[in-house]
Design brief:
Blueprint (H helix, E strand, L loop, with lengths): L1 E2 L30 H10 L5 H31 L9 H50 L2 H5 L3 H43 L1 H7 L2 H39 L1 H6 L3 H53 L5 H42 L21 E8 L8 E8 L4 E5 L6 H8 L7 E6 L2 E2 L5 H6 L1 E4 L8 E2 H5 L8 H11 L2 H6 L7 E2 L8 H15 L3 E5 L7 H15 L3 E5 L11 E6 L2 E6 L1 H7 L2 H16 L1
Parallel strand pairs: 1-7, 4-11, 4-12, 7-10, 10-11
Antiparallel strand pairs: 2-3, 2-5, 5-6, 8-9, 12-13
């Protein structure tokens, strides 16, 4: 779409949910589908099967070495038994060499696991972030109208980063922990079934503890992510509107609103960390209880010559290796709660309904003439609040039509429907005799050029921003368009001229200069139809006169929809249509409507009198 200002125009209707404001969401529930979300995350591992197989092999080899070490330590201790003929130094020397080699190999394998897993995690998260960002580009404008932008940014950054942390920290720990538990249990049974039974007394306690805490942390971590999204929304909203905040002396008010949201985040974050922090200390107590039981039972068995001291030492080490992964798994489960909460919020956006596909019979709109007809069109952003009511009108190709009326009357809604940012509730809109729903959206929107009141420029050079309307434009075409729009003069005065780098949304330019660049962008694109929504509202009167001449040249032989509150700017429009409360109440040329002395006459006279009074 040849769009001078890609930023959308918010429609009338329900206000977006504002973080910290009266429209906050209700109580947060635990993740709706923990297993389902984990399964969807696992699907992202599909492309990493080869690398995960290598990592799994390293984990198995490392687990074997870890399981071998306690057994060798026990044999070394038994080799130093004085009651069995003294110390066997040659055997002890071999055991020490083997142990050192095993520990060194285990360290290398651990490094390789972490290195390879970090790469896997980053590639998976990159794909997840790509999926989310691409999804945002395919969602309808209505989706963004109803959600705070900062909250969406939080899902793309904080929630995805949470998933990244979960993958990189938890995957290898989970695999090595499960193997360690199984291997340690086997070795414990080999050494002493009786001691194994004694040590397993802690397992039910670990299960009950983990389950009890997980119920609370799952809700708290999800709530923490939601509150973080609201905080980001509050920050984004305040920084974007900082000039308005300062102009109305609302610094203290926004600080209070920020403190309110920040306090809620602190409270839920504190609870989440406290409950998750309970886990490890209590797990250590349970682990120490198990070691005490093993020591007592092992001592009794040793006194009765049913087990050697070396075997007891090996068993205690194995029991540590059995309990420690249980502790790790409990901690991993806490990490998973946070990661799954982030993943679920990410998947919620990915699962949002996209703009419907073009119907099979849809055709591309090629070289439109610009004949537009509204046929009994009705529409509301909410079913219970109609905005347009049975609106019908026809615009011949090449005609300029001005839409005037009070704020909220439905003027912007007309162009939102024409470009299919929204689809009509009833009736139809035809372009060149065909329902616009029969055209592909892409080809329909490409034929429109937008210049909105709230312009938007991207970070980059002036040349890049102008070329946004026509990426393959030559430098000569760019300069010609800038001259037509009256932007070449101020651009030439800048230190780097067309290569001048703009900050976010052109913050280093005046509002009028930004508007001139937006108009230049449309002039370069030369669209078939124009939509001008208060296009010159931020430009001084002298520049406005120059722009109007350029606009007349641009609108020549093009169907143009002009939305304006300053009625003197649309006097030359072929048709002026007065909209009020969703209905067309008057239509005609300026002279015809003035002669009729109806609503338009009242509006024009009122503005003229106000202008005289102000002067």
């Amino acid at each position: 779409m040849a769009n001078g200002t890609p930023q959308k125009n918010n429609p009338p209707g329900p206000p977006p949910l504002r973080p910290g404001g009266p429209h906050q969401r209700g109580p947060v529930v635990k993740p709706k589908n923990f297993k389902g979300t984990l399964k969807r995350l696992w699907d992202y591992f599909g492309k990493e099967k080869k690398m995960l197989t290598i990592i799994f092999m390293f984990i198995i080899i490392d687990a074997v070495l870890v399981l071998l070490n306690p057994y060798l330590i026990g044999k070394a201790i038994d080799a130093m038994s004085v009651t069995k003929g003294g110390v066997n130094f040659s055997f002890l020397e071999v055991m020490i060499i083997v142990l050192i080699s095993a520990y060194a190999a285990s360290a290398v394998l651990n490094f390789l696991q972490g290195w390879l897993m970090a790469g896997v995690a980053q590639r998976i998260v990159r794909e997840l972030r790509d999926s989310l960002f691409k999804k945002l580009q395919r969602l309808p404008v209505a989706f963004f109208d109803k959600r705070p932008h900062g909250e969406l940014m939080s899902r793309l950054s904080n929630d995805v980063d949470n998933v990244s942390s979960t993958i990189s920290q938890s995957t290898t720990q989970l695999m090595s922990g499960l193997i360690g538990i199984a291997g340690s249990l086997v070795m414990m049974l080999v050494l002493s079934p009786i001691l194994t039974l004694a040590s397993l007394i802690t397992v039910p306690l670990v299960y009950l503890l983990t389950r009890s805490i997980a119920k609370r942390t799952s809700v708290l971590f999800k709530n923490q992510q939601v509150q973080l999204g609201k905080l980001n929304g509050q920050i984004e909203e305040t920084i974007s509107g900082i000039e308005v905040v300062k102009a109305f002396n609302h610094e203290e008010k926004v600080i209070e609103e920020f403190d309110e949201v920040n306090t809620k985040l602190r409270e839920v974050g504190l609870k989440a960390q406290i409950w998750s922090g309970f886990l490890m200390p209590i797990m250590n107590v349970i682990g120490n209880l198990g070691f005490a039981v093993v020591a007592i039972v092992g001592g009794v068995l040793a006194v009765n010559d049913l087990i050697t001291v070396g075997a007891i030492a090996s068993f205690i080490t194995y029991s540590r290796q059995f309990v420690r992964p249980l502790n790790d798994l409990a901690n991993i489960f806490n990490i998973l709660q946070s990661g799954v909460a982030g993943a679920e919020r990410t998947f919620e956006v990915i699962d949002e309904q996209e703009e419907p596909d073009d119907p099979p019979h849809a055709v591309r709109l090629e070289s439109p003439r610009g004949h537009v007809a509204f046929d009994h069109v009705s529409f509301g952003y909410r079913p219970d609040v109609p905005i347009l009511k049975n609106v019908s009108f026809e615009v011949e190709a090449g005609t300029s039509i001005a839409l005037v009326g009070p704020t909220g009357a439905g003027k912007t809604t007309v162009v939102n429907l024409l470009t299919r940012f929204y689809d009509v509730t009833a009736g139809s809109i035809r372009l060149d005799g065909r329902d616009i729903r029969d055209y592909t959206r892409d080809s329909l929107r490409r034929c429109f050029g937008f210049v909105l009141q709230d312009t938007y420029l991207f970070t980059g050079t002036i040349k890049e921003n102008i070329k946004y309307g026509k990426p393959d434009a030559t430098d000569e075409e760019i300069v010609t368009a800038a001259r037509m729009a009256g932007a070449d003069g101020f651009i030439r005065r800048l230190p780097r001229q067309y290569e001048t780098l703009l900050s976010e949304n052109g913050g280093n330019l005046s509002q009028g200069e930004r508007q001139l660049l937006a108009i230049t962008r449309v002039m370069l694109a030369k669209p078939s139809l124009l939509i001008l929504d208060e296009a010159t509202s931020s430009i001084d009167t002298r520049t406005e006169l120059h722009i109007q001449k350029a606009m007349l040249a641009l609108m020549e032989n093009r169907t143009s929809f002009i939305i304006a509150h300053r009625l003197n700017t649309i006097r030359d429009a072929d048709i002026i249509m007065v909209i009020d409360q969703g209905e067309v109440i008057e239509a005609g040329s300026h002279e015809q409507l003035m002669a009729k002395q109806g609503r338009y006459y009242q509006m024009f006279s009122s503005q003229f009198k106000n202008a005289e009074t102000a002067s």
